[in-house]
Amino acid sequence: MSQQNQSEDCSFKDVDNLMKTVQLAVQIPTFLLGLLLNVLAIRGFSSFLKKKWPCYTATSIYMINLAVFDLLLVLSLPFKMVLSRREGSFLPFCTLVECLYFISMYGSIFTICFISVDRFLAIRYPILVSHIRSPRKIFGICCIIWVLVWVGSTPVYSFHGKVANYTCFHNMSDGTWSAKVFFPFEVFGFLLPMSIIGFCSSRSIHILVARQDYTHDWVQQKACIWTIAVNLAVFVVSFLPVHLSFFLQFLVRNGFIVECRTKQNISLFLQLSMCFSNFNCCLDVFCYYFVIKEFRVDIMTHRPSRTQLVHQDTMNTMVKGKKSCLEEGNLNPNSIGNIPSQGSDVVG
Questions:
Q1: What is the C-alpha separation between 132 and 324, in angstroms, rounded?
Q2: Rounded to an integer, what distance in angstroms lies between the CA atom of residue 311 and that of residue 343?
Q3: Which residues form the G-protein coupled receptors family 1 profile domain (predicted)?
Q4: Can you say how many angstroms the Cα of residue 220 is from the centroid of all Cα atoms in its chain?
């Protein structure tokens, strides 16, 4: 998306040549790591769904959806690297790759946004949310996200307009940088989700910290706080710089910034931020790690100890013995309460 419309005094060739090397150094490892880690993430969260644990179903569906979007971005990277170096590529294929790239970016943003809202509601209104977090409804929300990003990607089809000598992900038409196209992308695609994520994350952390002295599951809640904090940090690091660079490039393309050196720096910042935002598909693995760790802490917290299992098994055996005595007529029902319990001996 660099500005290729060069004037006689201002050239962007040095910036573009530098970025060709940087992109290879960043995007090849991103592709390899992202492909491996997101496939493992999908497999890991699918295992929680197969075990049919209702407490983890909603989050698992969201996380699988996020991993699929990240995987889509990873798969578009090789085509992006090739097409961005060839002038006059087959336009429909170029448009398809650009479309998949931006769908994966904004699909990730919307999914993280819904994850933050879902987690906040589950923390703030646990009883109310328990009735609306059914797998079918969460799956429906994920489908809505896919519809939104596909519909929202329609401006991508006119990115190059009637530009004669275009390069994929470069030479965007003036219409692409018009206010009526740019501001909906910026506001609804980033600023609004970031505001929602920031509010929900801060409120969730505040609520959990306030419960520290009143909860018996502080280890589990501490894991939840780490998950929220990492999720917010990954979002900001991945998407704030690239959308700031979009805004600066908007100012350049609409004549608000005209100094050549400044335009070159903005072009470099834009391409660098887009390049490193791709690494989000690997950074999301930290979110997956903390979510899975939170699941495991919750499972271990609520798993009965060996002593509890022995005590429970002993009590079940005694109840069965009392029932059999009643059935044989050897005991008066009124005398059952007088039989001493041996559970305390076992626990001691």
A1: 44
A2: 6
A3: 37-288
A4: 21
Q: Residue 9 has what pLDDT?
A: 66
Mean pLDDT lowest among 132-136, 154-158, 184-188, 339-343: 339-343
Tell if the pTM clears 0.90, that is, is over it: no
Encode pLDDT of 177-209 as tens digits: 889 889 988 999 999 999 999 999 999 999 989
Which fold would CATH assign to domain 13-296?
Answer: Rhopdopsin 7-helix transmembrane proteins (1.20.1070)
Contact of 314 with 346, CB cutoff 8 Å: yes
- The neighbour count for residue 247, using CB atoms within 10 Å, is 13
Q: Where are the domains of the chain?
A: 13-296, 308-347
- Cβ 170 vs Cβ 87: under 8 Å: no
276-300 pLDDT tens trace: 888 888 888 777 777 776 666 666 6
The runs of H, that is alpha helices, within 211-341 are 218-253, 260-277, 280-302, 306-328
Angle, vertex CA 212, rays to CA 224 and CA 55, nearest 5 = 35
